[in-house]
Amino acid sequence: MIVIDTNVFVGACMGTGASARVIELCLLGQVAPAMGSALLMEFEDVLSHTALFEGCRLNATEREELLDIFLAQAKWVKTYFSWRPNLRDEGDNHVLELAVACAASHIVTWNTRDFSSMELRFPQLSIVTPPDFLKETTA
């Protein structure tokens, strides 16, 4: 099980190669993504920012369809514990908490730096960029 950060999903919508490939692996059932309520709200909020997607290869309807298909592959996970304060950016704590709740092997994000300052460490959890995740999964 892995947790996909919002920036990776946005990258997939924009056509960024590694992000798109990670999402494709999820859609094909080769990787099991986790989803929680806070992360879903963040996905939906970011997808509603039309200015962010100017020049995007997917229109708003297609982005919503991609999210629906992604959610159909995701395992819904309830987060019962907060591990706060833990990260410098409060907005990232819910991603980490979801990963801990589902015993994820990876958080796939373009913001690895934001997770490098964790006060609490979870040794079984790797924080990786999409290219690094792809190297691990295809090696």
TrEMBL record:
Q: Which Pfam families match?
A: PIN_3
Q: Which domain of life is it from?
A: Bacteria
Q: Where is the PIN domain?
A: 2-113
PANTHER family, sorted: SSL7007 PROTEIN (PTHR34610:SF3)
- Name of this chain's protein: Putative toxin-antitoxin system toxin component, PIN family
